[in-house]
């Protein structure tokens, strides 16, 4: 990683200063390396703005925030960068169907989770296609991601909060990427 | 939809002109409505630029392009808007592991599919976390999206190309959204 990038992160407050060892030298430890690695993941594949990265780091440094709270915050940051819920919002009817769907799944997801609006928007879009799509069409998708969430929780090392956040984002990228390749494949066979 | 938006799409060449019925009136048919609907989905939840939308429409209007070709083009457009593969590229080693992984899945995906680089970047990120992640960790994700691709192909009405493209994007949004909610849920239970 270029020194200029590290200096930029320091100036932007994304990296704690190292321990000064000489007039223009400082020592950086394992924690700094972990933070640098996560910064690259968040701004790179995660495409978060520096403002969002700063929020995520504040959450990581907050000893009172649970893994659940951190996960909600990272999700909110990801949604805010790709404003699916931009201008339009979703119809009342789609919102109600999605809330009911999440209830039936038994998922404990906050009433104001941005995912609810985004899913309702997707439902509005599908219903506009005119083949009578029903919220139940999301059933196989919900089952798949629920299994994957269990897989991640049970088989990945949890490690420090930096690792958990990095994994969450990297596996999301992997999932989307694999989905696109699977679609390409499915049209050949 | 506001008239100004429709006029904007006309000016930008995203919508074919209607059939003139009076000096400042024109008739728009079912095809126009489908195109408008798709434009909103592509620029809204799909977050494609107008340039990409224009490319997608040119592909839809190309009678020689197969569903597979259209799917590749839409995927490439989605990747280009969210440049996972931006500056950095992926390591040779991750590239080779991903190519081998896709081979073993038996997926027919072009050698230059942008998904290969994006997946290799995710693998590089995971390997940087230091717990010895191997490309096989993507196995459950690949299996899940392959099942979902079959589900979409077999149980959704195919309809015109506009519908296929809209569905592909809407289900991707639904998948990501549901994944984030499932993660939130998994940290509570």
Explain how this protein is built:
Two copies of one chain form a homodimer. Chain A is 65% helix and 4% strand. Chain A has eight helices and two strands. Chains A and B meet through helix 4, helix 6, helix 7 and helix 8 of A and helix 4, helix 6, helix 7 and helix 8 of B.
Order of helices and strands of chain A: HEEHHHHHHH
Regions with little confidence, pLDDT below 50 for 5+ residues of chain A? none
The secondary-structure class of chain A comes to mainly alpha
Beta-strand content bin of chain A:
under 5%
Largest interface (CB within 8 Å) is between: A-B, 76 and 76 residues
Strand order of the largest sheet of chain A: 1-2
Proportion of residues in helical segments of chain A: 55-70%
Estimate the global geometry of chain A from the Cα principal axes: elongated
Largest sheet report of chain A: 2 strands, antiparallel
Radius of gyration of chain A: 20 Å
Oligomer: homodimer
Distance, first to last CA of chain A = 42 Å
Give the count of helical stretches of chain A: 8
The beta-strand count of chain A equals 2
Mean pLDDT of chain A comes to 87
């Amino acid at each position: 990683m270029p020194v200029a990038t590290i200096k930029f992160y320091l100036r932007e407050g994304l990296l704690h200063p190292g321990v000064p060892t000489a007039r223009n030298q400082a020592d950086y430890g394992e924690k700094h390396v972990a933070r640098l690695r996560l910064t690259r993941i968040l701004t790179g594949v995660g495409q978060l703005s520096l403002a969002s990265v700063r929020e995520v780091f504040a959450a990581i440094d907050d000893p009172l925030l649970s893994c659940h709270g951190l996960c909600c915050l990272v999700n909110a940051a990801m949604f805010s960068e790709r404003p699916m819920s931009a201008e339009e919002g979703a119809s009342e009817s789609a919102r109600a169907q999605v809330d009911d769907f999440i209830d039936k799944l038994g998922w404990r997801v906050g009433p104001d989770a941005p995912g609810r609006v985004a899913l309702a928007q997707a439902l509005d879009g599908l219903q506009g296609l005119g083949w009578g799509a029903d919220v139940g069409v999301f059933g196989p998708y919900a089952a798949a991601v629920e299994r994957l969430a269990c897989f991640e929780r049970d088989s990945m090392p949890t490690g420090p909060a930096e690792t958990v956040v990095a994994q969450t984002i990297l596996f999301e990228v992997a999932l989307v990427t694999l989905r696109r390749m699977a679609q390409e494949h499915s049209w050949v066979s």
